[in-house]
Every structure is written in C-alpha cells, then in structure tokens.
From TrEMBL:
PROSITE patterns: CYTC (PS51007). Transmembrane segments: none annotated. The keyword Iron applies. Keywords: Electron transport, Heme, Iron, Metal-binding, Signal, Transport. Residues 1-20 form the signal peptide. This is C-type cytochrome. Residues 17-102 form the Cytochrome c domain. Pfam families: Cytochrom_C (PF00034). The keyword Transport applies. It comes from the Bacteria. It comes from Rubrivivax benzoatilyticus. The lineage of its organism: Bacteria, Pseudomonadati, Pseudomonadota, Betaproteobacteria, Burkholderiales. InterPro entries: Cyt_c-like_dom, Cyt_c-like_dom_sf, Cyt_c_ID.
Amino acid sequence: MIKPLLAAIGLALLSAGAQAAPEDIVKKSGCLMCHQVDKKVVGPSYKEIAAKYKGKKVEAQLFDKVRKGGGGVWGPVPMIPHTPQQISDADLKTVIAWVLKQ
C-alpha cells in the first residue's frame, strides 16, 4: 500500500515540474568546470559573485551574461555562451538566485 502511494507522489512531483536543487543543476550543466562556491577556478567563485552584486537587482543581467558569454568583468578569460540546451531558462534562473545568496 505504501509503495504505490510513494510512487504516485513521485510521479506527481515529476509531472508538476519539480525543480532540481541548484547544486545538482551546476553539476549537470558543467558550471563547476569554471566556478566553485568558495574558490576561484577559471572564473570567480560564487561567493565572489554574490559579494560583488550584493543588494543589486542583477538577475536579468547575469542571465544574459551566461546566455551570451563575454569577458572583461572578472579578468581576461571570457565566459563562453551557454545555450538553453546546456541549461534551461528555469534552471538558469534557479542557479542565479542561488549564487546571489552565497
């Protein structure tokens, strides 16, 4: 009785579009190849990003930056563009909100 109930709940969550945890999204999307939470790798750490933009409404700006790529803000190495096939719009918004809370 409990197993079918749990399966039904799991299916309901999946069909309702349950959002993945930000940590899982950055792993799946390859973000950790260049960024870490608390240390600079190729790009800035998530904590550095959060500190730089603390108290500012930059979600749309960061969304565009990830989609289009670019450089010059954090040093000479440009960030490559990331398509919706690499990270969906919903996942990207989730990650940006999470990064800004670090």
